[in-house]
Amino acid sequence: MAKGRQTFKFVFIATLFLTALLVIGAGCNQNLTGEVSKTELPKMEMLFSDDFAGYSLGSIPSKWLPIFKEEPFFSVAAIQQKNSDLVANSIELGGLMLQVNDATSYQWKDYTIVSDFKIESLYHVGPIFIFRMQDENNYYSIEPELSATGGTYKIYKTIDNKKTEIFRKSYTYKLADKEWHKVEVKIEGNQISLKIDDKTVFSGIEDNTYNEGSVAFGTNPNSRIYFDNVAIIGTKF
Prior knowledge:
By secondary structure, this protein is mainly β. It folds into 2 domains: 1-40; 45-234, Jelly Rolls (Sandwich). It contains 1 helix and 15 strands, in the order αβββββββββββββββ. The strands form 2 sheets. Strands 1, 3, 4, 6, 11, 12, 13 and 15 form an 8-stranded antiparallel β-sheet that branches. The protein has a 7-stranded antiparallel β-sheet with strand order 2-5-14-7-8-9-10, with no helix packed on it. It starts with a helix and ends with a strand. Residues 7-32 and 71-75 have low confidence and may be disordered.
């Protein structure tokens, strides 16, 4: 009988011990209120948007800063009618850079740039997408070299106004002139990804030069590009 009691006592104590371990383990995932804590993810938010509505035709939009890096063949940054719709405007850009007019944008880290664009150029020169911009002489850029069958998409890093190519990829998807297309540039950590018209051009290209910075659009001196419905979504700081 005494032996049975001892066995029962041992099982009872062992059960209490295991229960205590489970409670302690569960407590590691709880906060002081007893709720299970969750991993904190970066809060994504709309950092910037512009559909270019409400601006006067021919004006420079107040949400942007034009930057002239060189003497262009022609230069323009002006609101124009989008197709024949008098309400929906777009921005016409040629021979310069157009930067987001937001002082906090230099602290933006991970974000996705989405925009519509249309190419109207005799030379079929593509738009330039600029990101993690420190100033007009230090930034990343994606610059397509377009052709009748597709083109080559290049990533550059510009340091002290010296441009260095860090990646290139040939792509057979043709960007038709005088038609609207959609671009999506994603910058996350040290990785750069690009989609055109919801088609992946490249993804996860790594570089560690810049980890935060502003956004701009650019064109070459002999090009004319239209942009519309710009949105930048990501983490502000």
